[in-house]
Amino acid sequence: MGTTATATVIIADDHPLLRVALRLNIERIEPSAQVIEVDSLAALKSSLPKHPDTRLVLLDLMMPDVEGLSALQYLRHEWPELRVAVVSGMEERSWVRSAEALGAVAFIPKATPVEQTQQILAKVMSGGGWWPPPDTLPPPPPDSIDARIDRLSPQELRILLYIKDGRLNKQIADELAIRESTVKTHITALLRKLDLRSRTQAAVLAQRLLAGN
């Protein structure tokens, strides 16, 4: 999706006040921007074909019809060229790293001060990215899901999330454009790092991650 003279930005969040705040920030940055607001993944799915030149989606991870990272996974699969910035109240390292592994261009905590949010949005609107500095994220408790997830490489994390969705090795290989044997190697490594014995255990852990537990 290329950049157009008039930027189209879709805000996908079920909190009206946050949508208003994000809209005002975008309009200050780029007064000519067309801002579309949706409050669910279903509405986002309906809106995107109507606005094929959308420059950016600001995505909440916890809308009522969304399970964790499923909306981001959908966008990366169906609209791979679309830039997606996550705006979320989930600030654990595992959520930030998972969003980055799935191809988001930014992760903006909802608690970010207004002035800083505007600065971040200006950077993202101009084609850049932004991620919370590692030292601003609380360290995960030892032996927590976050701590275990933090051991994974970005590719291993992507594969873990596909395992959660029930994808077979061949499907994962096709999705990531790698060899099936490479997928098997990554699965062996991620099971070792997570101290797990099976794909089923890995899927359960990934589900717990997505549930925010």
Secondary-structure blueprint:
Layout: E1 8-12, H1 16-29, E2 34-38, H2 41-47, E3 56-59, H3 70-78, E4 83-88, H4 93-101, E5 106-109, H5 114-125, H6 145-149, H7 154-164, H8 169-176, H9 180-194, H10 199-211
Parallel strand pairs: 1-2, 1-3, 3-4, 4-5
Task: Give a summary of the structure in a few sentences.
With 213 residues, the chain is α/β, with parallel strands linked by helices.
Strand runs, count? 5
> What is the average per-residue confidence, as pLDDT, rounded to a whole number?
89
Spatially, the strands of the biggest sheet line up as 2-1-3-4-5
- The sequence of SSEs as H and E is EHEHEHEHEHHHHHH
Amino-to-carboxy terminus distance = 35 Å
Oligomer: single chain
What's the alpha carbon Rg, rounded to whole Å? 18 Å
Please tell me what the overall shape is. Answer: globular
Total of DSSP H or I helical runs spanning 4+ residues: 10
Question: Which percent bin holds the helix content?
Answer: 40-55%
Reported for the largest beta sheet, the result is:
5 strands, parallel
Given as residue ranges, the uncertain stretches (5+ residues, pLDDT < 50) are: none
β-strand percent reads 5-15%
